[in-house]
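Need residues for this backbone.
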């Protein structure tokens, strides 16, 4: 009897092991939405409201190309008035206005659950800007100050126009987008740009480029950012089959 019980016990253990080892492969069909996401950069209208010397608007958009890749673009217009102050005097003041377009792609490094389209992405852009400057007035900088000990000599008080200018650059982009309501997304991104071309006007320089930001004398690098609010418009769906293993 004991011998029979031991044999039956081992038979049950082996049966349970075989049962746990058996797995069923199920094919699951899922539909993933593809489409266009369009929106606006919120930081530029906010800065326009807070700063009387700035006006700007940027439209953003991206299109889902594959499960991970999105084509992306930004289109904007900016105008800014600036002045260079040295001591107690305004050395010169000018305004810059222009438009720009950026186009490229983003790669989503975040793995979503089914039905989600959140992003933690890296990407790149090629950007091109057309711009013009208006130099309102300027003074001659003289470190000697022999002829003008109290102030800098006035150079001109008549506005001078510098137009038909342009610049191009490449951008490295890192950012994220999250769905807060159905098909409505908020996003944030940081951009590091490097100038490729920069057409300076005669007797002046491109000190600020729409879409690129401030230009420094010893560097071709610029930093930017945006905070976007966008809406995803589903255009079609792709069917994808996934094989999942389930234990029997």
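Answer:
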């Amino acid at each position: 009897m004991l011998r029979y019980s031991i044999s039956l016990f081992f038979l049950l253990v082996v049966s349970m092991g075989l049962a746990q080892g058996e797995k069923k492969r199920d094919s699951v069909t899922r539909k993933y939405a593809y489409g266009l996401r369009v929106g606006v950069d919120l930081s530029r209208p906010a800065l326009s409201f807070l700063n009387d010397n700035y006006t700007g608007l940027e439209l953003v958009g991206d299109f889902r190309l594959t499960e991970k890749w999105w084509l992306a673009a930004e289109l904007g217009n900016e105008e800014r008035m600036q002045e260079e102050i040295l001591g107690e005097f305004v050395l010169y003041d000018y305004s810059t206005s222009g438009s720009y377009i950026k186009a490229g792609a983003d790669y989503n490094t975040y793995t979503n659950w089914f039905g989600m389209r959140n992003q933690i992405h890296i990407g790149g852009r090629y950007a091109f800007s057309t711009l013009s400057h208006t130099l309102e007035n300027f003074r001659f900088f003289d470190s000697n100050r022999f002829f003008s000990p109290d102030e800098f000599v006035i150079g001109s008080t008549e506005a001078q126009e510098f137009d038909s200018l342009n610049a191009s650059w490449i951008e490295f982009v890192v950012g994220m987008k999250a769905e807060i309501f159905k098909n409505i997304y908020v996003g944030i991104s940081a951009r590091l740009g490097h100038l490729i071309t920069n057409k300076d006007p005669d007797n002046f320089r491109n000190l600020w480029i729409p879409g690129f930001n401030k230009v420094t004398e010893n560097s071709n690098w610029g930093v930017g950012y945006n905070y976007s609010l966008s809406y995803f418009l589903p255009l079609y769906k792709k069917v994808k089959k996934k094989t999942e293993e389930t234990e029997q």
